[in-house]
Amino acid sequence: MGHSNVRWLVISNFSQVVHLASPLEGLLLHKLKLSHCNKIKTISSLASLTSLQSLKLVYCPEIRDLSPILPYSSNLTKLDLSGSKRITAASFSNVAAHFTERMEQLVVDFSHRIQLATISMPINRWNLKELGAVCCDIVTPNITILTSSLVKLDLEGCNVTDAILQVISRNCVILGDLSLKECPLINSNSLTIINNITTLQKLSLSKCLKIKECDITLPSLSEFEICSTKITQFKCDSTTLKTLDVSGCTSIHLQPFIQSISSSPLQNLWLKGIPLSKDLLESISLNCSNLRILNLTGVIPLDVDYFAEGIAAVAERCLYLERMYLSSSPGLEATIQQIEDNFPMITITCL
């Protein structure tokens, strides 16, 4: 390749490539992504890429040694080691000690040998804004990586205890995006601590099966996902909520919440696979005046005779509605055609 103007390179699904050769030399790359390169064992050829700012080694399971990135580790702003199962805590720590305040995004999803506790040592020199640690070992609340600079934190599938939530609440003073999806220890009582993270704008509690009652009072929450849980009662501060996804919550009693949010900013409502009563459908048509997207695929109509009339009422009254998702049904064809004729601004997708 020689000297080139290439700044961003993706090498993906090279299942037979064992090592990266010299053609990378001379490139002034700023971003490099190696994805699903199953046989690459060494990244020694990356040592020459001293302009690199973003490095993603995604599902390259044979890579063990990170030392080749040491020459430019102080320049990195983003590092993604998702699925790097052979990178040890010692190898990571050797490089992490050279990270500086430029490091803003770190992803170690499914990197089981890198414990978050081992990342903590050099954190005082970082300015980490995003941390992804899906299904990682998070064994102690004394994790200094959970710092005041974090804006986005993904702990999906981790054993997040109430003690760890307390650390997040106390330390992460500007945190805006938190995913606790499928965290097995999160329960209804944990929500009291989560409500103390008042800067949150986006929250996911999907598949947290120990949550039975949901009462969220976050003043700035804009997007809330709590899919496939066993919740029955649902309350949420509605003054800022724009997106709500309760798909798969088959025991949820949502109608009182919808009835209480007249003139709310709610724009996107996802109700896939939940029981849908006449009262709930009526409340949507009367109270969700700012609705843009409504997903009703797989819902279980509790009043089959009213369902077609109900979705027609939603189309008529929700003046900003742009898209509606429904399950294919011969009984709805006439109603769908009527909506499309009378409200051409609404796109209906039948799945």
Molecular structure report:
The chain has helices spanning 89-96, 116-119, 162-171, 190-194, 255-259, 278-287, 304-317, 333-342; strands at residues 8-12, 31-35, 54-58, 78-80, 105-107, 130-132, 152-154, 177-179, 202-204, 213-216, 223-225, 233-236, 243-245, 268-270, 275-276, 293-295, 300-301, 323-326, 347-350. The protein is of the alpha/beta class and 351 residues long. It has a domain at 254-351: Ribonuclease Inhibitor (Leucine-rich repeat, LRR (right-handed beta-alpha superhelix)), CATH 3.80.10. The two termini are 47 Å apart. Pfam families: LRR_6. It comes from Arcella intermedia. This is F-box domain-containing protein.
- The number of helical elements comes to 8
- What structural class do the secondary elements suggest? alpha/beta
User: In which range does the helix fraction lie?
Assistant: 10-25%
Poorly predicted runs of 5 or more residues:
none
The first-level CATH class of the domain at 254-351 is given as Alpha Beta
CATH architecture of the domain at 254-351: Alpha-Beta Horseshoe
How many strands, which pairing sense, and closed or not: the largest β-sheet? 15 strands, parallel
How would you state the average pLDDT, rounded?
88
Integer-rounded radius of gyration: 24 Å
Strand content: 15-25%
Organism: Arcella intermedia
InterPro entries: Leu-rich_rpt, LRR_dom_sf
Protein name: F-box domain-containing protein
